[in-house]
Design goal:
The structure is a homohexamer. By secondary structure, chain A is mainly α. Chain A has 9 helices and 3 strands, in the order E-H-H-H-H-H-H-H-H-E-E-H. Helices cover 42% and strands 2% of the residues of chain A. In chain A, strands 2-3 form a two-stranded parallel sheet. In chain A, helix 3 packs antiparallel against helix 6 and helix 6 packs antiparallel against helix 7. The first copy, chain A, is globular and about 65 Å long. At the A-B interface, strand 1, helix 3, helix 4, helix 6 and helix 9 of A face strand 1, helix 3, helix 4, helix 6 and helix 9 of B.
Chain lengths: 310, 310, 310, 310, 310, 310
């Protein structure tokens, strides 16, 4: 089971100019074959299906805790897309022309099926599907797969970084490149530990050093490229048995974070987009009803949740 | 972001007779249109895409926290399938005939693609896909959808209960019927609160009372049909504003659990199935390597994780 | 637009022994690439998309009216599947084991997603999709396609006839082979009229004469292999301009039926299957509510509809 | 079975400026998850699969006759798309550059697979599929679904209305919003009648009154928002038992139309688009052949069909 | 089995201005329902599945050898797409904005999943799939299909010719129209030989003569519209038994080429596109490693392969 | 381009007892994610899309020539499936019950869509699709993928070997395990050469030595585990630059075969299966027509092709 913390893994910029075409490209990092849905679901199902957990505990702990971090990644990509779409559907609901600006966008369903929001699709509008999950149960093979998956994921993050210059997309890819790089490394180290093979010379893959990307630098400075979090109040204590040794590019020592998870940051409370009826054609009415209910339930007058733009 | 707790939401029986055909049917509850992947992903994306969170806080909290519980549901269905498949692939790896018993099973990929394990597919072997996610951003509409989704999900749980008599499947459906029923109710209540419509006479839907199912009774006895958990250390404090009033079937008062989540139970550590190479053709070797690494990392001699059959 | 007549194009036998495995094979004739969904939708969209209708009126009339007949074909295949599944889900709703008999059937979704009923899928459980529709707008090419489609459809009907010996399946294929044969011929004749090519020597395709199939004989005796119906109260008056000449196998003259459509037959009112909650776990309750509402609306005491087993 | 009437349910404007990008968006209303293919096929299969028709006759009649109206809706959406594409492929067939103007359109297959015409796809170019059909056989559940489906459909019609300002798209959505609204209401009323729940406060959903849309007004004036048609010469006599009471927004009384169907209007005979070979690279030749055949068949010299631009 | 020859079937122009939007349209000829993947795979599987090869040898030889030519066609379409994409990803790898020019292209995956290169998709970005393969085993039916498939393929080639004016696309379609026309004819002739039907009046289909296309003329001049190649060092000797008689448009005699295959032409060695890391972010390094390895293996200093731009 | 040789890469046994259920499992090796369609198409498209061929010639040669061998693998898997299905459809065409024996088989489409023959599907009946092709253009990444793909493929071959004991399936997997192992090794060596990483300790993967499989031994004896073929009359001369060094399991030296390809073996001429109309309901008629045509074309009286059972 999981507990949920209402914070993003890292800070994203506030909405600025909307960029629906860019947002359609960022979908690849969410619902693409190498997107975060794939990393999240692959490791999640591998952990569910893991046989002989006790016998192979450090490996189980590795896969299970990285899976938990990946939930935060789908959350982050979705938040980025939503940020980029904010401002593109502010017209009057029910009025001809209110969405005329986006009729030529690449992914119309972000507005028709969604509320100017992320979809579980890739950059060509194809839905993510369960066929993207590899979970053979053969530990060596699953780790080989995971190393390859992270390599493809790193490739796609680099491409989106090159392709989309919206500040939210740049912040997103800067962060994901650092943390995805840790996962890529973790699986390679696990595979080395299990077989004796030497994979460190495969790094960086693709052959572009992470520390050359300006948006990665602040995260590297904080050491985010070197540590794994357990992402659990009490479990997954054996990560250190497989995640250790020097970083293949910098030579710094890898380690397990003492804190359970990054501190993260509150999300922006994204404003209504009435032309797509999100959260409804008349957001004020919803607010009033919510206020009334909150009062009836004896809750404080001010909403209890924390948002970046409170 | 999430934290992960290495326990199942409820106890499942230990593996007994394997039942691959039954396990292929249970897949509907995992990767079917109305399976737990759908409930998990629908609410997760609705929470990601929620606009005006502060203004509509109690509704946001509801969707976000139920999403968190649903992760535990996919975990539970996967564990059930894995339990049911245990014992069906114990032959010698690399030997002709080692898997001959399952050549006629309904879902061969549970053995070919998986390690006698769950797949992200439905009962006809079709992968789950992102098209099953509805996230319009229009709060009333999303809640209408969610009520319908839970109704379809309850239907499918009842059908699987009728169809598969393996003890693990019966334990699973008994639990899911109770907790899914709470979610069905929660969305209906939210919709009532928001619109003034009266939906309570739609319960139970389908028209089969949960408390007639023997496997549901222990959970009902513990009050699991009446409460929502926050599934968060600190967030989602406003559930009481929408989840309240009498239960439509029993008249008992609905309430928010004081504890953050159910206590749950440790999972069984499922034994290797060497004929499908899970966790490898030679599980002992993996165990030895793991032991060596654990030692090198200064970990205790005994694995730190907790399992039901420790 | 259409008007609907609550009769089947031909009589089907009453439900007898259920045959879920056979019913899963018959799905190919409904949702397969060459099933009736494909013939129905191909001709329907070709008629919608037809350019220069007045200039090419006889061809438009041909495609549009055959499309109308094909609706009756999907109705007939669905009725056959439903007949074959009747009796397989009569257990007590909500009781463990009520559906145990069908856990090993080929298409479990006929029971989980459906109410012991037809799905929009093929014999391997794959959903029909819009990619099966060919509508190029180029008349010669569309007719070439339609001739090929009917050839594939005839092949599949023959195969199902050979494979499934349930009386309903035999009655279905006997009828469809005769009427599908007329459509195959109609498109070939249209193509001949348009180009001067001579296609009659391609008949029968596959090379199995229809009149050798015992179940086809009664329909042939009634001349159903020779005539086209307009399937419209007033439209599609120009069929005779393309559907004429001798039948390639029998030499009899083709003609346009004077009656608008076949007389057809009422459908059986299929009994409830409570184990799949169709029409509900408590069918009697629905009946009582319906009776009350009918009374309140001033309708006659006895239901007004006609069914075969009234 | 059905009879077909060669008229559209309502009048559409004649082709004017082509709008391929707009036409790609309108596809959502045809082949999208909430498009008219979905409403048509859902109700059609629910009527095919309906168990205990006599016992639940008014409900059967409701679903079956609405299904018939939906055929007219797919016809209308296709006609709209075709109208919008007319004029975009008028170049010389077989000449380089003849289609250069549309190489950058969103859905190239409207020109490559189709003859400047509608496809069975959504606005992202994904084919409609049978997975979109929900037909559980459980009457309450099917009605719940149908209410939800119509809600999603209304959302999408509103969005397309806002997004596409081509006159044909505006006429289409104006009409569909009114008639789809009736279906949404009919299913809600049926559900109320069956369960006693009170759903009227859910209207309008989404929360945008239909009568505020200028293009809806003429239809509302004619009372099209208040009545159901039987769409059958003789069947479906029991609609009044479930479709009755006041309209939730206007308070006017709902009723069953005396006429079998709307009068409708003839379709425009859309001109050839030679650059996509529709109806052929040399439309004149086809016309001459058709004329010759019509003559040989003793048909009147002038085509018998009726079109808006005769 | 096959042997591979490192030459294209015909010459393509060198890369010039990049045209990503055009390249997205050309994908239809690769991965579309009527693209070259379909012709290649249909004939390949029909040859694999052919029963009674000896008894029906000339037909087997026909299908098997045309299949071999089709491999050359997928190669040619891919080369065209790659040529058209060359120049669009020349920016600095790992630099923000390096791919900004293509963020609005129709198929972003040509850059994100591919290295500015062809994908196994159609012009709407949908992957080719095995459902497009028809292989009934019934010879007459397979030939009927193949004639129809080539007709649809010819239609699509003509449309792409009209739509995309990039020199590589024009060269491609000019060649494919001629050679695809031969296959269309070959299947029609085989069908005539087998049944006695007369299909020659169906040519050309669509009704646009190949010899009116300027880009086809050079190939026609060389007689490429009249001959079949065996595409085998020793096999497929019986083609003449089915491919013979006069060409339906020109009256010239069809014949079997004496040479095993066309001479073809070397491909251009397409330059690196570093912004998509093809063949890597630092192509020079790869070159140096390759040189070193070649030396160590005793290979000549200059690469042994032949390319057009050597 | 390719030339085709009408021989299989290795000998398969003659048809014996039919095994449709086993044949449905073997489909995984043809159309599964890790089946031979995937290996064939991945390497084929990587070779098509290869940038800087001259600069990276040995790597291009490697990928391009292995692609050619993979064609022989899809041919071999199809031949195996066809062999296993022979004998299951020998009934009288057009007769009820002729296919009754296979109505319960796992993949009915092998008989309905195919002529008792292979489909482009996996073991769950899902079509292969272009999404399974990875062709990033980044050489290191493509090689990483290919090593992983071959590992998954080896896993699946081992599983099918364990699961299906039909002699044809055993012969198939015995051969494929040896040759697929060579490809797995080739990609690992290429990756080592390019990066300096040491991957040899990953072998065998999965951890089951090939030489323990009895059906592999004859091929190992002939040295088939040590050599690469060029599969080209003249091209791909630089394989030795990347395929060299000792075999990781046996220590024997890897080498490039002097012969262009294995000698292979003629295929069995599989007998008609009249109940599925392959090659037609009346195979004799086809034979007579073929004989007549062959005579007219001046061909020798006896068919020129070579088959195993001549």
């Amino acid at each position: 089971m999981i507990l949920r913390i209402d914070r993003l893994l890292t800070e994203l910029p506030a909405p600025s100019d909307p960029d629906p075409v860019g947002a359609s490209a960022v979908q690849e990092l969410l619902g693409g074959k190498f997107g975060e849905m794939s990393t999240f679901m692959n490791y999640t199902y591998q952990s569910f299906n893991f046989r002989s957990r006790q016998g192979a505990r450090p490996f189980y702990d590795l896969v299970a805790s990285i899976a938990a971090e990946e939930f935060g990644h789908i959350e982050l990509v979705a938040a980025t897309i939503n940020t980029m779409l904010t401002g593109s559907a502010e017209g009057t609901p029910g009025q001809s022309g209110a969405l005329a600006d986006v009729v030529g966008t690449r992914n119309t369903q972000q507005f028709i099926a969604g509320g100017a929001a992320a979809l579980v699709q890739d950059s060509n509008g194809k839905p993510w599907n369960g066929d993207y999950v590899f979970s053979s149960g053969d530990l060596i093979e699953d780790l080989t797969h995971n190393f390859f998956l992270e390599t493809g994921a790193r490739n796609n993050k680099l491409k989106i970084y090159e392709m989309v210059d919206h500040p939210a997309a740049r912040a997103l890819t800067g962060y994901l490149l650092v943390r995805g790089g840790v996962h890529q490394l973790a699986y390679a180290r696990a595979l080395e530990n299990l077989t004796g093979a030497d994979l460190m010379k495969l790094f960086p893959a693709p052959r572009i050093p992470t520390d050359k990307i300006p948006e990665c630098k602040p995260h590297i400075k904080r050491g985010e490229h070197l540590k794994l979090y357990r992402f659990s109040p009490e479990d997954y204590q054996e990560l250190a048995a497989v995640f250790n040794g020097p970083h293949p590019e910098t030579g710094e020592e890898l380690f397990i974070a003492e804190e359970v998870s990054p501190e993260g940051a509150p999300a922006y409370d994204l404003p209504p987009q009435p032309a797509v009826f999100a959260p409804g054609p008349e957001p004020k009415e919803i607010e009033e009803i919510a206020a009334k209910q909150r009062k009836a339930a004896g809750l404080p007058k001010k909403p209890t949740g924390t948002v970046a733009n409170a």
